[in-house]
């Protein structure tokens, strides 16, 4: 692990050095979602992440709006906190050499270039590892390195369709539905992070690096878990249940007098508690509903009875009654409502950063919390394009006059030296 730059912020001030990845340098050559999500999580754990971007337009997601926050796209802001931006043209010889130097001094390199591009640039695993044998090098692809046809581009919607995830989602009688977020990208980012952390542990112990790979298709396939095992066991395509559960009843959305709620009675004991809270002892005593297999067999009858009872009162009343009875229950919330509700409940779903153009900015924190200082999210806001170019190139030992000349030729964009730095 490399001390120094990883323990400093973009002003040179020391950051919390006791986070688990303090001192780890990450060269982030990825863009859009899966790779940037992984590197953001590494930054949340204290890594010094240098995001390499095109000097003119940066990461593709900088242009993915509206909505905007004072010129910064909400999409870009969502996955790039805690990083420093080096805006440099890797196709130009000087820019390519600078990025090679960055990779030579990095603990982790992560990239999601189209197949063949990274080799032409001399930034592939074999070339990087020849100079940096301890490097953990992560390649992210859509369909995996061995998938045929080779080089098939991967986009979340395509992968959701090809993986079975889309076919498993949606109402029983309606069309297949895409999950509302780019789930295969997010899962790939998580898988890449797990693999990188495991390889870093070995690199720390042995000094030997590793080439780890993560693909959207395999991340989506592995996420199907019990559903795919059901298909493998039966040899049949699983039915689609919409907001219900194929193997547990009752476990689904229900309509009350004014809003939808979800009840998850995952075992016989919880079902008995539900019947008591609903004041329906007849449902508890009915032999058709005595066990979960019985309830699955008579799903429609039971759901109809429960729905009829729930429609007599408002959602807020049922939430109070069922929660007091120990029955798992929740309101079907909108996204903004869900974030506000989590914060109000003490979950600290958001973290606040001071952005140079957007001002005070609320961002979703990671799904984990660390006990060390700053462990709930990156300490740096999402960077402006090229905001840290000069500082990073200084760290690589490139003389300032050469950096200035590269900037004049358009090889580097150094926003910190330009008053007309682009907002997006």
Descriptive labels:
424 residues, alpha/beta, Rossmann fold, formyl-coa transferase, domain 3, 7-stranded mixed beta sheet, 3-stranded antiparallel beta sheet, 17 helices, 15% strand, elongated, disordered C terminus
3D architecture notes:
The model is unreliable at 3-15 and 417-424 (pLDDT under 50). By secondary structure, this protein is of the alpha/beta class. The strands form 4 sheets. A 7-stranded mixed sheet has the order 8-7-6-1-2-5-14, sandwiched between helices. The protein has a 3-stranded antiparallel sheet with strand order 9-10-11, with helices on one face. A two-stranded antiparallel sheet has the order 3-4. The protein has 2 domains: 25-228 and 378-417, Crotonobetainyl-coa:carnitine coa-transferase, domain 1 (Rossmann fold); 260-331, formyl-coa transferase, domain 3 (2-Layer Sandwich). A hairpin with a 4-residue loop joins strand 9 (251-255) and strand 10 (260-264). It has 17 helices and 14 strands. 37% of the residues lie in helices and 15% in strands. The protein has helices spanning 34-44, 74-78, 93-104, 117-120, 125-131, 156-163, 183-206, 216-223, 225-234, 268-277, 281-285, 292-297, 299-310, 315-324, 335-344, 389-395, 400-408; strands spanning 25-29, 48-53, 68-69, 72-73, 83-88, 108-111, 136-141, 210-215, 251-255, 260-264, 329-331, 350-355, 359-364, 412-413.
